């Protein structure tokens, strides 16, 4: 088993006043040649957007984009005619493919919105752009992993153009679990949204990340109540 550990305070950081953004991997003005990606996982941004502000219309191409609201209202709009508010316990997925234009705004004039924006490199380029959003039931992630992304449209959760599986879990202190990889050629990047856990011999605290590969499974011990996101992606 190989691992790479990223402490929360080692992430790139940008403060634009209305936007405070932490970058696990190189993004915008933050560049670290040792932290460009984890396999097909290209971007993991932890964004805090002030009330009444947001990202105006901008383009994307040939990327799978997953947005996970953590607090507040994320207002989406795009050139495919999709629009509305995405809240915590909802997941938004877009396949940019041949090209999309979209905006991400704070749906509240006063309260901040906090969300994770994740980019996954697709296995196929120039696909027809598509949009999807799913509603999660919190009980489905209590002390177990809830699948939120997969490569298969008929599976639980949303789907993307990549051999990737995402799971979310909310675990109580003292719980233990084993994550079994869907594909032994993949790796898993665990991002700890909140709490404290231990994966094999490595402890993680709030907003720490750990990549694991060259293994078929690994053990997770919950040291404090924890909210975690597991992103299994191809490593080549």
3D structure, described in words:
- This protein is 0% helix and 57% strand.
- The chain folds into two domains: 12-135, Sandwich (Jelly Rolls); 138-234, Sandwich (Jelly Rolls).
- It has 236 residues and is mainly beta.
- A hairpin with a 2-residue loop joins β17 (186-199) and β18.
- The relative contact order is 0.19.
Q: Secondary-structure map with pairings?
A:
Elements: E1 2-6, E2 12-15, E3 19-23, E4 41-49, E5 54-60, E6 64-71, E7 74-78, E8 83-86, E9 90-95, E10 100-106, E11 113-120, E12 130-135, E13 146-150, E14 158-159, E15 165-171, E16 176-180, E17 186-199, E18 202-205, E19 209-213, E20 217-234
Parallel strand pairs: 13-14
Antiparallel strand pairs: 1-19, 2-3, 3-4, 4-11, 5-10, 6-9, 6-11, 7-8, 7-10, 9-12, 13-15, 15-20, 16-20, 17-18, 17-19, 17-20
Which features would summarize this protein structure in a list?
2 domains; Jelly Rolls; 236 residues; seven-stranded antiparallel β-sheet; mainly beta; nine-stranded mixed β-sheet; globular
Number of helices: 0
Shape: globular
Oligomeric nature of the chains: single chain
Helix content: under 10%
Distance between the termini: 16 Å
CATH topology of the largest domain: Jelly Rolls
Structure in a nutshell:
With 236 residues, this protein is mainly β.
């Amino acid at each position: 088993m190989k691992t790479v550990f990223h402490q929360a305070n080692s992430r790139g950081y940008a403060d634009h006043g209305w936007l405070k953004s932490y970058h696990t991997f190189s993004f915008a003005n933050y560049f670290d040649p040792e932290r460009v990606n984890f396999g097909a996982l290209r971007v993991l941004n932890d964004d805090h957007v002030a009330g009444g502000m947001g990202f105006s219309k901008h383009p994307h191409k040939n990327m799978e984009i997953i947005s996970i609201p953590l607090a507040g209202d994320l207002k989406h709009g795009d050139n495919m005619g999709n629009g509305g508010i995405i809240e915590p316990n909802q997941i938004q997925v877009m396949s940019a493919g041949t090209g999309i234009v979209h905006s991400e705004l704070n749906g509240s004039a006063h309260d901040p919105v906090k969300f994770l924006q994740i980019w996954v490199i697709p296995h196929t380029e120039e696909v027809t752009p598509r949009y999807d959003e799913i509603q999660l039931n919190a009980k489905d992630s209590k002390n177990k992993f809830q699948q939120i992304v997969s490569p298969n449209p008929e599976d639980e959760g949303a789907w993307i153009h990549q051999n990737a599986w995402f799971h979310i879990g909310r675990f109580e202190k003292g719980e233990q679990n084993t994550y079994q990889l869907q594909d032994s050629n993949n790796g898993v990047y665990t991002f700890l949204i909140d709490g404290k856990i231990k994966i094999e011999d490595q402890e993680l605290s709030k907003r720490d990340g750990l990549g694991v590969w060259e293994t078929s499974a690994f053990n997770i011990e919950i040291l404090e109540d924890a909210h975690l996101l597991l992103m299994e992606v191809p490593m080549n």
